[in-house]
Amino acid sequence: MHIATETISVRYAETDQMGVVYHANYLIWCEIGRTKLMEDLGYKYAELETSGILSPVVNVNMNYKYPARYGEDITIHTWIAEYNGIRVTYGYEIVNQRGKVCLEGTSEHVCVKKDTFRPIAVKKFFPELHAAYGENKKHREEQ
């Protein structure tokens, strides 16, 4: 099972008046992690879009544990939590430079045809991605 990691610096524009990262910015960071995971597995999301496939979010669950702050580096850990051939759930953990877990969460996606928004079987359109997702799914007991 592969866990992608990406480290970024918290920018001032990402914080709110309290000096902590505004909650919606964690979603952007999860997208960075998801893109990194796909690249690690040999795919680029832009290539899926070019081929007429999109991967819209159908559910998000974010548990905020500790505030990230301006000037800190945070590391995004991303993995495949669940996958059934049509629907994929990515798991996330965002940790600050002191090792404090700032966020734990998941996002659920379904691959669809761009023109109809009808779900597709990933195995049919992208057999290598299907295999990579199945091989790298993090089992519940590992979470």
UniProtKB/TrEMBL annotation:
Provide the alphabetized UniProt keywords: Hydrolase
Molecular-function annotations in GO = fatty acyl-CoA hydrolase activity
Would you tell me the protein name for this molecule?
A: Acyl-CoA thioester hydrolase
- Family label: Belongs to the 4-hydroxybenzoyl-CoA thioesterase family.
Q: Which domain of life is it from?
A: Bacteria
Entry-linked PANTHER family: 4-HYDROXYBENZOYL-COA THIOESTERASE FAMILY MEMBER, NOVEL THIOESTERASE SUPERFAMILY DOMAIN AND SAPOSIN A-TYPE DOMAIN CONTAINING PROTEIN (0610012H03RIK)
Which species is this record about? Evansella caseinilytica
User: Which classification does the entry list for the species?
Assistant: Bacteria, Bacillati, Bacillota, Bacilli, Bacillales
Instruction: Tell me the InterPro entries matching this sequence.
Output: 4-hydroxybenzoyl-CoA_TE, HotDog_dom_sf, YbgC/YbaW
